[in-house]
Design goal:
Number of helices: 13
Radius of gyration: 20 Å
Structural class: alpha/beta
Bound molecules: NADP nicotinamide-adenine-dinucleotide phosphate
Distance between the termini: 15 Å
Amino acid sequence: MEQKLRVGILGATGMVGQRFISLLEDHPWFEVVTVAASPRSAGKTYEEAVGGRWKMTTPMPEAVKNLAVLNVNEVEKVAATVDFVFSAVDMTKDEIKAIEEAYAKTETPVVSNNSAHRWTPDVPMVVPEINVEHFGIIDAQKKRLGTTRGFIAVKPNCSIQSYTPCLAAWKEFGPKEVVATTYQAISGAGKTFQDWPEMVENIIPYIGGEEEKSEQEPLRVLGTVGEDAIIKADAPKITCQCIRVPVLNGHTAAVFVNFEKKPTKEQLIEKLLSFKGFPQEAELPSAPKQFIQYREECDRPQVKMDVDYENGMGVTIGRLREDSMFDFKFVGLSHNTVRGAAGGAVLCAEALTAKGYIAKK
Ligand SMILES: NC(=O)c1ccc[n+]([C@@H]2O[C@H](COP(=O)([O-])OP(=O)(O)OC[C@H]3O[C@@H](n4cnc5c(N)ncnc54)[C@H](OP(=O)(O)O)[C@@H]3O)[C@@H](O)[C@H]2O)c1
């Protein structure tokens, strides 16, 4: 790309915002020029505003340390400085809906990590390897918003990334019933063990709103593009329990599945290994070369060994075997703040850029 696109990060001081800052350091297409957060941080330098809250294991990039933090709510002022924004603010759902639409209406594309617009009928919710064609609904959205280049695109919840890619890879066998239990890392709540000591040696069997997202969002991702709305798939039926476990990064899922046409184990593994999509074909900068890896060892995937597979952008599957009640069962793992949050959004933005939806203003 001749000239990098100018990027703003809404919620730049938070956990996901920091992950965006880290992932975008030296990005070949995008340059972070604007950081925005709450009025509490506005006016400070990024370094001052984050203070002791830097949660990444790599140091804060020099290029952002002295950027002045803007107020997310000053939409026109922020929008004037950028070609598009990533959104990772923590506000109420209604506030997020309104502010993301306000940005889109300034002709600034919004690629969001938030859940607020995931069920807005004409907002695409995309895992680029699975349903990049859903970006086609953006034309209808722009018509509704009255914009020419402004729109909102979102990525799905972090919990679904450990099993939904398998359901997509196995589409031709007709997955019809899925029972999943997720074992979710504390960084998914924006926390480390320092600020959530109660999680050390503990398990909490409740994550607000997570089970509904884990059951419903895969159906939207596996859905089709209608005239002015994404049409949700009607299969598989998914039931899910979501459990918080004492792990810093990495959501694991233990999954049972029934198929319309029962395949062999070898067929299932072959489909996982050959599954690829637009990011691989277009060689997008953040695309994992091999999206899904299958580990034959009986004790994989393991968080410590596999969470950073393909720089946190790949998915690891293991323990695929026949079951006595269901056709098959398996275990999946993905990085919740990389593939499941900021990294997934960066890949969406790369796909949107490659397809011409995001360009210089
Ligand atoms: N953590 C994850 O893995 C994950 C995964 C998927 C989705 N999410 C979602 O992503 C969003 C951000 O999560 P997070 O973990 O990064 O949260 P976080 O660490 O609490 O950060 C929140 C960010 O939003 C800003 N903010 C808070 N209140 C605001 C207000 N009233 N007006 C403007 N900005 C405000 C904060 O600015 P200040 O620093 O100035 O307060 C900060 O930059 C949430 O909606 C969360 O549900 C998180």
